[in-house]
Please model this.
Amino acid sequence: MRKKYRLIDHTADFGIHVFGDSLQDLFENAAHAMFDQIVEPNTLKRLDTYKIHITGDD
Model:
């Protein structure tokens, strides 16, 4: 599995170096990095599951 991001030394609270093969990958991996810094992912538990259906015009 390729690395999605790595933390870097920064004068702010934290810095990240994000990896991806496309712009979409970069945004997704940046979101993962931010989320991982905000919460401890291993402590999360699913409480509810929802099924949704969305329609729209392209």
The helical segments are 23-38. The mean pLDDT is 88. The two ends are 34 Å apart (CA to CA). Residues 5-41 form one domain.
